[in-house]
Amino acid sequence: MKFSEFGKKFTSDAGILSLMDDLGKALASQSDVVMMGGGNPGYIPEVQDILRTQMISLLDNKAKFHELTGIYDPPQGHLRFTEACARLLRKEYGWDVGPENICLTNGSQSGFFILFNLFGGRYEDGTVKKIRLPLAPEYIGYSDLGITHDFFTATKPKIELLENRMFKYRIDFDQLEIGEETGAICVSRPTNPTGNVITDSEVERLLELCNAHHIPLILDNAYGVPFPGIIYTSATPMWDQNVIKCLSLSKFGLPAVRTGIIVAREEIIRAISSLNAIMALAPNSFGAMLTEGLFQSGEILEISTDIIKPFYQKKAQAALETIEHYLSKIPYRLHKVEGSMFLWLWFKDLPITSLELYERLKSRGVLVVSGHYFFPGLDSGWKHQHECIRLTYSQNDQDVERGIKIMAEELAEIYQNR
What we know:
Elements: H1 5-9, H2 15-29, E1 34-35, H3 45-60, H4 62-70, H5 79-93, E2 102-105, H6 108-119, E3 121-122, E4 128-133, E5 152-154, E6 158-161, E7 166-170, E8 182-188, H7 200-213, E9 217-220, E10 243-248, E11 260-263, H8 266-280, H9 286-297, H10 299-326, E12 333-335, E13 342-346, H11 354-363, E14 366-367, E15 369-370, E16 388-392, H12 397-416
Parallel strand pairs: 1-14, 4-5, 4-8, 7-12, 8-9, 9-10
Antiparallel strand pairs: 2-11, 3-4, 6-7, 10-11, 12-13, 13-16, 15-16
């Protein structure tokens, strides 16, 4: 059977497909696999108890249960939720937004598919525009979202070497050239895979560039502020008429409900709603109705600050101590941990590629992600891309330690035999 160009592109060997396939097979096999590859949030009993209480309330209310399961939402998403979300953002941060500035999608991934193809690709006048990533590495899930080929362009970061084997990527504004080919700028904050948090001043500089070139700035805050708040450094929640703010309920503890939240000016929200209607009729109601009360009360911010952030910060510290213990004789550097739920390790002059390291670890029951997947828009010739791996510390601490210990054993053998 032959597929169209669209079909061929989206059934090819995508990094995100490989990642999710590995995770699914590992879970289905119920084998003793150390899951340090995916972005599944950790199990936080206090958060689960809160969400379970909300769920019971929905089940006990016949009218709400019927609304949840038996009525389509409008293409923009659940109305009471968008109103509650807008009120919260106005009250807490002074953002000039109403429900007309908010749209839901069936997960952030589908939201980015819509946004990227709204601003990237072929235009009516024949021009072709790309999505510019000002800082690579970036999220693996972006890489294959463009309908057209050669969809992204990216800028190499400045690498700042820090004490205690740490380093940090910074935006190289001297090399960040925005021409007519740029349809939008996108950056995640904190960045998946590295945990990097670009500063407020870097965000302001990016917004200035976007305003000067009349293009939007897409800020992916799936892990950041206002919620779930998995961020360990200073970062001001900001929005502007030229900013498209992308939020999610996944890392709040609800990855299965697939609820993405986009905050943008009205014309963009109308466009996303139109695509929602064409692609799915409407976004699902589950996440919106389950958390509606938490948005109305503002409790979602308290949960993020008082429960979720400390949970991940504690796990990050434990993972750092484990890295220091087991990898002490390995020539590694670790990106400064400023947020998200990942560690980004750089093995300078690694004798094999990061993909080969991934395969060796997989054969020993440890799942990580090869770093080469995280550089869309950059030429693959940069050696640094093949010297890095991403691992998550969100799961059981004992499993994380076991995985790092096995990784240290493999690396010791690799460097010894080079």
